[in-house]
Amino acid sequence: MIHFLLLSVSIATLCVRAHDHVAERPDRTGCFDYFLQKDGCVYGSADAPCKEKTGKTSTSCNAFRIDPASEAAQKQTVLQAAPENHGRLARRYDTTIPTLAVAGGNGICGFYNSTTTSGVCLWSGEGWVDSRHEPISGWLNGTRVGNCNKHVYIQRQGQPETVQYAPVLDGCGFNTVTPDVGCFQVWMTIDLFDKFNPTPEQRRKFQIDDTFTWDFVGGEGGNPV
Ligand SMILES: *[C@@H]1O[C@H](CO)[C@@H](O)[C@H](O)[C@H]1NC(C)=O
Ligand SMILES: *[C@@H]1O[C@H](CO)[C@@H](O)[C@H](O)[C@H]1NC(C)=O
Which parts of the chain sit beneath pLDDT 70? Predict the structure, then answer.
């Protein structure tokens, strides 16, 4: 029990840097606040931009829960220690669950045709389901639509040559209630899915299990809120 408590405290220290000097805005989303708390900045944002030269990667707090001796943890350490040398498209948010193609239709940002339009679906957060979960808006939800149509870049992890740019067209639940999972994920339209050259098996399942790296473009492409 004592060990468990100590572990919880150290995770909390790593993942929550409680400072927030950035003015509250009514359209601010749950994921914006999550990264502001965790990293002290939000990539691509106008209000709380991250300093490009720090080369800091935002990592899901889940990553801190893995065995430090594991291969994944060692890889993580190497990545965090590596100097910034990838220019603007440095590694940002890495998906931790499989990436699926979405059906399209009437989404949070309006109608879109998944087979003819490239776009992404970001976390829609979680409504108030029971007393354990406060509502969180994710990157967008039915009432917080400020990130609709903002542009993201997305690439297969470590393969900058696969980069694509696409607007945010919808919100997805990703079957998760926690920002530590939801804020990092991205699903995509079939049109965008096909641009990543899925194997016949991936195309049949409309699912790619490999990690994708993505972030808001910022600036002209739209600063995330
Ligand atoms: C999407 O576009 C395709 C190709 O133009 C068309 O066949 C399909 O009916 C459209 N789907 C919807 C829901 O409008
Ligand atoms: C969107 O998230 C906010 C909390 O950030 C919540 O108050 C609101 O009810 C949510 N809207 C929907 C439609 O879930």
Answer: 1-21, 52-91, 128-133
